[in-house]
Specification:
Blueprint lengths: L1 H23 L6 H23 L1 H6 L3 H17 L6 E13 L21 E13 L1 E17 L2 E16 L2 E2 L3 E20 L12 E19 L4 E14 L6 E3 L2 E3 L11 E15 L2
Antiparallel strand pairs: 1-2, 1-11, 2-3, 3-4, 4-6, 5-6, 6-7, 7-8, 7-9, 8-11, 9-10
Helix pairs in contact: 1-2, 2-4
């Protein structure tokens, strides 16, 4: 515990030194350096200072750390950006991405001697937003596709989907680019489909297919960068962030009802993600 406290103290001192460099160096006017201070260093200094004051609370509430950093960054950015140009516009399009996710809880539904499910999910969907002054208000939805494995004549497939609403704030712009942090809420679902992968003669009462899944509310902490190469029309973008499950339990379902086995594994849908977006839109300074 003492070593951990020393590490946090060193990080706090480095952050303080970075603030001093920003204030007194000739590079203090750089927009990218200002963004780094607002998004990273100020929230980091605040969180490490609070940790040194109340370390026990942070050890008990680890999931509050990324939430706190994101909220502090957003408040810092919105508070310092009030004098910038107001914007209008909007965008929408197709997205594809990857979510780093540990699928071990779903291994429970695979036969004991069966294959091991691979980690990670491919996400395919769409999203859109509108610009109100510098606020980014929108949402989207996606399909989750995970690993597919076979065991004799049984086939297992991970799949699901989710949707969310989010709000952000534009902190940096050029004539063709927007940069904004995002905070969203929604729901996510992931299940494992177990079925027979070959032709069989139908027999009443015979097991053919089952689907076990879990649904959880999600808090989404992320950031986005959108590039409009022609100012209007084509848009290319990237989103990156972290999903935090707001419910953590062993409540599983199947099509028709709940699964009540008390030995079911606990599960959450936490994970880092990165998504690429392709679509259309525009933005401009509001008159």
């Amino acid at each position: 515990m003492k070593n951990q406290r020393n590490i946090v103290r060193i990080i706090h001192l480095i952050g303080a030194a970075a603030i001093g460099t920003f204030i007194y160096s000739p590079y203090g006017g750089s927009q990218w350096l200002q963004l780094l201070v607002q998004v990273g260093i100020i929230p980091l200094l605040t969180l490490t200072g609070l940790w040194l004051w109340k370390p026990k609370w942070f050890r008990v509430n680890r999931k509050a750390i990324p939430i706190s950093i994101s909220l502090l960054a957003l408040l810092s950015l919105t508070g310092s950006s009030h004098a910038q140009d107001k914007l209008k516009g909007g965008s929408g399009g197709f997205m594809v991405g990857y979510k780093a996710y540990n699928t071990s809880a779903y291994q429970f539904f695979v036969a004991e001697s069966g294959p091991t499910l691979g980690d990670g999910l491919i996400q395919i969907g769409g999203e859109g937003y509108g610009l109100i002054n510098r606020w980014v208000i929108g949402g989207g939805g996606y399909y989750n596709r995970g690993d597919k494995v076979e065991d004799n004549n049984l086939e297992y497939q991970l799949h699901g989907g989710g949707g969310y609403l989010n709000v952000g704030y534009v902190v940096y712009t050029t004539d063709q680019m927007l940069v904004f942090p995002l905070l969203g809420v929604g729901a996510d679902a992931l299940g494992i489909n177990r079925g027979i992968d070959e032709d069989v003669a139908f027999e009443p009462g015979r097991f053919l297919e089952a689907n076990y899944f879990t649904i959880t509310p999600i808090l989404d902490l992320g950031a986005g960068v959108d590039w409009f190469p022609y100012k209007k029309g084509l848009k290319l973008g990237i989103r990156a962030g972290y999903n935090i499950s707001l419910s953590r339990d062993n409540d599983w379902r199947h099509y028709g009802g709940d699964v009540t086995d008390p030995g079911l594994p606990s599960n959450d849908l936490d994970g880092f993600y990165v998504r690429l977006t392709v679509g259309g839109g525009y933005f401009m300074a509001k008159e």
